[in-house]
Amino acid sequence: MADDNEIIEQLKSTLDVKPKRMKVKTLIKKFGFVRRTEENMLRLTELFRDHEILVNPTIMKLGDTWRLDLEDWIYLSLDTPQPQLPESTAEMQVIEWDGNQWLDLENLADKQLRTEKEVEMKFIIPLLFKLGFNETDRYDDMAINAATGSKPTVLHIDFALFNSELESLKNQVLLTVEAKRENRLTTQKEIIQARNQAKSYALWTGCSFCLITDGNIIEVFSLPRTHLEKETILFNCSRIELASKFSELYKIISKSVLTQFYTSQFGTVEEIT
């Protein structure tokens, strides 16, 4: 009987040309599990990472419930050096916002953000709204069981963003957000620590894009999920620059752009049985 590594290598050999899809129940059966548990899904997530295979959407439980049914599809592909955003975003139109919107970019520099909660409520949530994410798309303080080496841990993600309107993106995290208190991203050490915290979410959520902010500094990066040390900074600006640079940010992590990116990963592909 083949062991887990042999099964993974057999799967990987089928991905040389293009991605493949399989049902969750097929994945469980292929590895000899009697039923789906958080422990065996964690084990498989680590195995796929070790063999540089991406699984979208994540097979992990997000929060308290399994969002993926056993009949749902997952998509397997070889990891790439860096996620590539759709070329069409360069010409896309940014949604215009009038002055009555919750977050007034022109007057943003004057806001007081004294605690991490105020950064979340007064800055991040309105910013996500401007980027096209509605309340249903947003999962606040999302818990996910994970592991650091051989040690189990529970991660709490400040904000995980979805496209709640598309069944094809069920359980697919489009973007994770790591919030810090104001002025907690002022040194390179603090920025690296925040990046590393955000990176720790990528493997378990199946998400390739992260935003970190303390309300003064806004940074967005992407990363290959099997090589978390190789992030690429896509956007960085201060709060006072955001009004002039919002169009650039929108074309990187708006709901519409990230929806295009992830749906492009889930084209009509051959099934693994």
Description:
This protein folds into 2 domains: 4-79 and 266-271, no CATH class; 87-264, tt1808, chain A, CATH 3.90.1570.30. The chain is built from 7 helices and 10 strands. The chain has helices spanning 4-13, 24-30, 38-50, 116-130, 188-205, 242-253, 255-264; strands at residues 20-23, 53-56, 73-78, 138-148, 151-161, 175-179, 209-213, 217-222, 232-238, 270-271. The longest helix has 18 residues, at 188-205. It is globular, with a radius of gyration of 19 Å. The protein starts with a helix and ends with a strand. The model has no long low-confidence stretch (mean pLDDT 88).
**Cα-atom radius of gyration:** 19 Å
Strand order of the largest sheet: 4-5-6-7-8-9
Task: Write down the CATH class of the largest domain.
Answer: Alpha Beta
**C-alpha termini separation:** 18 Å
Q: Residue ranges: pLDDT <50 for 5 or more in a row?
A: none
Assess the beta-strand content as a share of residues. 15-25%
At the third CATH level, what is the topology name of the largest domain?
tt1808, chain A
Percent of residues in helices:
25-40%
Tally the structural domains: 2
Q: Nutshell version of this structure?
A:
This protein has seven helices and ten strands. It has 273 residues and is of the alpha+beta class.
SSE layout and pairing:
Layout: H1 4-13, E1 20-23, H2 24-30, H3 38-50, E2 53-56, E3 73-78, H4 116-130, E4 138-148, E5 151-161, E6 175-179, H5 188-205, E7 209-213, E8 217-222, E9 232-238, H6 242-253, H7 255-264, E10 270-271
Parallel strand pairs: 1-10, 6-7
Antiparallel strand pairs: 1-3, 2-3, 4-5, 5-6, 7-8, 8-9
Helix pairs in contact: 6-7
